[in-house]
Write a structure and sequence with these properties.
The protein is mainly alpha-helical. It has a single domain, classed as Methane Monooxygenase Hydroxylase, Chain G, domain 1. It is built from three helices and two strands. The chain has a two-stranded antiparallel sheet. Strand 1 and strand 2 form a beta hairpin. The longest helix has about 40 residues.
Length: about 120
Amino acid sequence: MSEHQHGYIQRKDDYLRRLRRIEGQARGLQRMVEEEQYCIDILTQVAAMTKALQAVSLGLVEEHLTHCVVAAVREELETLPGVRSVEVELETGEVTVASDGPLDDRAVAAAVEEAGYQLAAAPR
């Protein structure tokens, strides 16, 4: 099995820029409270910071799904004897396995579980 590289690595600099901006927003919020500024102004800044954190979070979840989840499932299934290729379709939740012959359903389920996931339906 190859060494795993996290899905966000290609956008690491972007994530770090966003997180530094959020860090600056947090310092600004602290300053606003220290200066006893108006509640609504503080809440407006909290909402902006929350939205920025949510954007980072959603990006990381997308990267995790499209890279880490797909790689983990593919790598585990490819260890099964006779497996030639594995395709993972995240939008539908379907995994297609091409093999030289029939696969043991329990072995497929065990490989998916080893990747950290569960089959939603029995293999066809």
